[in-house]
Amino acid sequence: MPVRETEAWLLADGQALRDALGVRWSDVDMGLPASPREVERIVDPKKLLNDVTGRVSRTVTDHFGQLGELVSLQRLDSVPAYRRWWDDTRDALESLGYRPG
Fold this sequence. Notes:
The structure is a single chain. By secondary structure, this protein is mostly helical. The chain is built from seven helices and no strands. It has one domain.
């Protein structure tokens, strides 16, 4: 999974970002798009993540794990690249004989 896509996916859920950073900024204040589908249009998601996390004197890598746990999978499901990744992963596992219980 490409790093740039992962960074964009972390921007799909403003509430998760607020919770991880302990801030009350709006999505607009953080420069987040109005819809999760639009995160793939962000030219440099790493820069945006660094800009937002830098406002609380931390680096984005300090928050990757926490953000990964907080980002809503329902919101990520609206992001086309995430949906493709999920479908491809599921298909690959099923082709190897995995059947979820």
